[in-house]
Amino acid sequence: IFFVSVGALMDITQLESYIFIAIALIAVTVAMKFGANLLGNMSFRQEKAKSLRSAFALSAPRGEFSIVIVKVGVDMGVVSAFLFPLIGLITIITAFISPFLIRVGDKIIPKLAKS
């Protein structure tokens, strides 16, 4: 019910103008989460394969909590209404790419862990 009600509040007619911004933000945030996760794991001396697996698994998902925070900010007038559909789009896209990143990671990790 939550996603239906939040989705009904979004102006999807403007999504095509946000797609390039969303893709750029997704690329930057996924790369930053991947790097931070990998660095954190390696600083605690985790095995390389385990560090890489964690980084691949946790780098994409953006939480539904982001949608809630932006919605509250828009309602209070402290966040631009432009961000609401943008954050919604980012959340949806990252939810769908997460399994693909894990699958790619499963193929790449054995090669990277050996080096």
Automatic annotation (TrEMBL):
Keywords: Membrane, Transmembrane, Transmembrane helix, Transport. It is a multi-pass membrane protein. GO terms for molecular function: antiporter activity. Pfam families: Na_H_Exchanger. Its main location: membrane. It is found in: Membrane. Residues 1-101 form the Cation/H+ exchanger transmembrane domain. The chain crosses the membrane at residues 18-40, 82-102. The keyword Transmembrane helix applies. GO terms for biological process: proton transmembrane transport. GO terms for cellular component: membrane. Belongs to the monovalent cation:proton antiporter 2 (CPA2) transporter (TC 2.A.37) family. This is Cation/H+ exchanger transmembrane domain-containing protein. It comes from marine metagenome.
